[in-house]
């Protein structure tokens, strides 16, 4: 096993020492190995898959593991999101899971010895009517019962903290907000690099530019994979490929209760600090924060059609900007710097899946809808538990693949089997 180990240990003294030497002696953060003929476990996808590989090695001592990524690290949804972390959910299957994830975020940098730029600046969910206030109060109580933090702010409390919001919009006046102080943002590409570095140091092979082209299945059991870099044998495969889930699982002759949609995100030009935390619009779908570089990072609804493309359309841009202007008119003068699209696995009830499949040794992680990035640590942890033990982790016990057959839905938004509305 070739590991980097202690040579990658970061400290203030090492940073000063290397800085005085011109920063010329830093080693690579991970190896670039060629695929081995066989592994104990193969994980497809280097987003949640990297986290799963890290926890599989760290918590269960299983290190003969390969993570396969069809492109480069960070080219998928793990690097195409708005970086928000939170645990402000309602249902008993979701809230404890996302609170577990938030707790893992809080210790992630110390665990990985890597600066992932975890910023717990807080998240505000604005409400605009009495009925919405009651709904948010219920959600806040559910959060408190699950051990999370939540505060319901009235208009006066909110206005004293955030006077720049448009409280008297003719259509959507702001009456208050549900506030989670521990929510915030994390640098998405730093999360990729941190987990890659941690998994590599524990002996995991991270293989980039290696696309899976088929499964080798014999008598209902997984035996290996075909890839663009040759066949690889294994008895356990974890599929963690976000928006490509349906395409990859179709190669194993499995049809998923999932649709794939495009979700756009945007970044403005750099501005002086003006948005201290994450803010979401309660009368539409708009959310925004300000990055450490000064750009406003924001997004909104899906584009409204099925697609595997990583680009969006103009009507969705207009809809997002309309929501932003309703609560933050000041952003109307900011110039848009860039925009991109991510592929969303939209499940039939808007909640994820972490479960085994009818094929022995084949496990699936997907259906994250809008919640994939914030779930990365818990998703990886629970997937590692599933791969190591064959049993679902207690925090993810409700995320079963067969719940759509048995009727045990986890419909957080209450909009039924309409993936485009989740």
Describe the structure.
It contains eleven helices and 19 strands. It has two domains: 33-81 and 188-257 and 349-421, 3-Layer(bba) Sandwich (FAD/NAD(P)-binding domain); 119-182 and 259-346, D-Amino Acid Oxidase, Chain A, domain 2 (2-Layer Sandwich), CATH 3.30.9. Helix 2 (48-60) packs parallel to helix 7, helix 2 crosses helix 10 (376-389) and helix 3 (95-106) packs across helix 10 (376-389). It has 422 residues and is an alpha/beta fold. The protein starts with 11 loop residues before the first helix and ends in a 16-residue tail after the last helix. The chain has helices at 12-20, 48-60, 95-106, 108-112, 130-145, 155-161, 188-201, 245-250, 314-327, 376-389, 403-406; strands at residues 41-44, 65-68, 84-85, 123-127, 151-154, 176-180, 184-185, 205-207, 212-218, 221-227, 232-233, 237-239, 258-270, 278-280, 287-290, 295-306, 336-347, 353-356, 362-366. The longest helix has 16 residues, at 130-145. It is globular and about 65 Å long.
Instruction: Using the coordinates shown, work out and report the CATH topology of the largest domain.
Output: FAD/NAD(P)-binding domain
Q: Which strand-content bin applies to the residues?
A: 15-25%
Number of strands: 19
Proportion in helices: 25-40%
Structural class: alpha/beta
Write the layout of secondary structure elements.
Elements lengths: L11 H9 L20 E4 L3 H13 L4 E4 L15 E2 L9 H12 L1 H5 L10 E5 L2 H16 L5 E4 H7 L14 E5 L3 E2 L2 H14 L3 E3 L4 E7 L2 E7 L4 E2 L3 E3 L5 H6 L7 E13 L7 E3 L6 E4 L4 E12 L7 H14 L8 E12 L5 E4 L5 E5 L9 H14 L13 H4 L16
Parallel strand pairs: 1-2, 1-12, 2-8, 4-14, 12-19
Antiparallel strand pairs: 3-7, 4-6, 5-6, 9-10, 10-11, 13-16, 13-17, 14-15, 15-16, 18-19
Helix pairs in contact: 2-7, 2-10, 3-10
């Amino acid at each position: 096993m070739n590991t980097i180990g202690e040579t990658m240990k970061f400290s203030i003294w090492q940073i000063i020492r290397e800085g005085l030497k011109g920063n010329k002696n830093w080693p690579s953060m991970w190896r670039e190995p060629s695929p081995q003929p066989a592994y104990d476990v193969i994980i497809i996808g280097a987003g949640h898959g990297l986290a799963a590989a890290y926890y599989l090695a760290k918590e269960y001592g299983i290190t003969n593991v390969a993570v396969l990524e069809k492109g480069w690290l960070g080219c998928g949804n793990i690097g195409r999101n708005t970086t928000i972390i939170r645990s402000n959910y309602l249902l008993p299957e979701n809230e404890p899971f996302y609170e577990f994830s938030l707790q893992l975020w809080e210790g992630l940098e110390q665990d990985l010895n890597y600066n992932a730029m975890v910023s717990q600046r807080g998240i505000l969910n604005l409400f605009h009517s009495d009925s919405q206030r009651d709904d948010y109060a219920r959600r806040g109580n559910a959060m408190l019962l699950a051990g999370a933090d939540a505060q319901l702010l009235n208009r006066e409390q909110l206005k004293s903290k955030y006077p720049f919001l448009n409280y008297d919009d003719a259509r959507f006046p702001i009456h208050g907000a549900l506030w989670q102080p521990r929510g915030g943002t994390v640098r998405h590409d730093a999360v990729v690099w941190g987990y890659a570095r941690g998994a590599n140091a524990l002996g995991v092979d991270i293989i980039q530019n290696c696309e899976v082209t088929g499964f080798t299945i014999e008598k209902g059991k997984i035996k290996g994979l075909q890839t663009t870099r040759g066949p690889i044998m294994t008895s356990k495969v974890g599929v963690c490929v976000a928006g490509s889930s349906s395409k990859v699982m179709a190669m194993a002759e499995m049809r998923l209760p999932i649709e794939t949609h495009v979700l756009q995100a945007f970044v403005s030009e750099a501005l002086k600090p003006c948005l201290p935390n994450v803010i979401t619009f309660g009368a539409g779908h708009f959310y925004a924060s300000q990055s450490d570089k000064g750009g406003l990072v924001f997004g909104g609804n899906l584009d409204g059609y099925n697609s595997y493309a990583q680009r969006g359309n103009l009507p969705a841009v207009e809809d997002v900007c309309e929501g932003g202007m309703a609560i933050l008119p000041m952003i109307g003068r900011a110039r848009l710097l860039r925009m991109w699209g991510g592929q969303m696995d939209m499940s039939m009830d808007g909640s994820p899946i972490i479960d085994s499949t009818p094929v022995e040794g084949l496990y699936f992680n997907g259906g994250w809808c809008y919640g994939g990035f914030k779930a990365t640590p818990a998703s990886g942890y629970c997937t590692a538990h599933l791969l190591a033990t064959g049993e679902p982790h207690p925090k993810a016990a409700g995320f079963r693949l067969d719940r759509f057959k048995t009727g045990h839905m986890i419909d957080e938004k209450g909009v039924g089997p309409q993936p485009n509305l989740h």
